[in-house]
Prior knowledge:
Blueprint: E1 44-45, E2 53-54, H1 57-66, H2 72-81, H3 87-100
Antiparallel strand pairs: 1-2
Helix pairs in contact: 2-3
Amino acid sequence: MLIAKKDYEPGDVILTEEPLIYILGSDQRGQRCDSCLKEFDSLEACSGCQFVQYCSKECKGKDCEAHHKYDECKVLKDVMNQGIPYLESVLLLIRVYLTANV
């Protein structure tokens, strides 16, 4: 059991944590950067898989270091070539698997 050492008001933030894995939903794909999640009018697709999109070289590098270095592009491209639907869900599963097996 946890006991607070001070009183909190409704709406107070008591904990924040970065997610281990996140992806964009299909309704946000093409509107937001796959790395920073900010909205942009113009995004550049990954040269490897052509599925994820970035707003900058910095975001592409960050995502590459976090996910793409584990052959995420190759696996995602193979899945896309097989015509498997729901690529957002597939991307999430790929990231879970590859991150857990590092």
